[in-house]
Write a structure and sequence with these properties.
The protein is an alpha/beta fold. It has ten helices and seven strands. S-adenosylmethionine is lined by residues 11-14, 26, 30, 34, 53-55, 58-59, 75-78, 81, 104-106, 123-125, 128-129.
């Protein structure tokens, strides 16, 4: 259990050698689900996008591939994730269409002014956020009116298989889809809808800030 825990804790915060491997592995391991999620997103031309928990930066690259007129900011509390994301997206960082910031989602209010983003994405990360509903509120506040948060999770429509990870990864919490929807509404989002890919057990929740 010891070595497994050491390795899997890198999903919550990649660190050191195993963390680098995990960040790179997640770029490929989560690719199909991320492509599905990005395909559901309504992203206006020139959107300012924040990808929270950006990991190895694969989804930053996919978002920029989808529309090069957008600007994507990656945010992650792990210095390994930040370094990997910057390296993978070096051209975009160089050209000014991408920034990667080290910090926790719980500290969004001190990292970015209110209404800084049109779209916020959260792929495979909310399980690790402290006080997830408080973090949803922080995300709400950095979204501009009319903006959307997208939460994309796997093993997430039927969560029965996902709970095994809670024993392997410190601080992980698996949420039921209806609880995610409720917490988003309670955090101030006005228009919350979900798309279930039941065959693959993927969930995408969209939450809009209307005013
Ligand atoms: C399972 S990985 C997912 C990475 C990437 N989004 C993907 O889908 O491949 C979770 C990421 O969220 C980050 N993370 C976890 N809690 C965080 C927090 N409170 N604030 C910012 N990043 C966080 C981790 O460091 C890790 O890089």
């Amino acid at each position: 259990m010891g070595i497994l825990k050491t390795i899997f804790n890198n999903t919550a915060e990649p660190r050191g050698f195993w963390g680098r491997l995990m960040a790179r592995g997640m770029n490929s391991g989560h690719a199909r689900q991320a492509i599905w999620g990005i395909g559901l997103m309504d992203i206006p031309a020139g959107a300012r996008i924040l990808d929270v928990g950006c990991g190895g930066g694969g989804n930053i690259a996919r978002l920029l591939e989808r529309d090069a007129s957008c600007h994507v900011t990656g945010l992650d509390h792990s210095s390994v994730s930040v370094a990997e994301s910057r390296a993978l997206n070096a051209n975009a960082v160089e050209s000014g269409s991408c920034d990667v910031v080290q910090g926790g989602v719980q500290d969004l209010a001190s990292l970015f002014p209110p209404a800084s983003f049109d779209v916020v994405t959260a792929f495979e990360t909310i399980y690790f956020w402290p006080d997830v509903q408080g973090c949803f509120r922080r995300v709400h506040d950095v979204l501009a009116p009319g903006g959307s948060l997208y939460v994309v999770n796997e093993e997430a429509v039927d969560t029965s298989s996902a709970h095994r990870w809670e024993g392997l990864i410190d601080g992980m919490s698996v949420y039921e889809p209806e609880d995610i929807v409720r917490m988003l509404r309670d955090a101030g989002f006005e228009d919350v809808s979900r798309t279930d890919e039941t065959r693959r057990n993927w969930l995408c929740v969209r939450a809009r800030r209307l005013r």
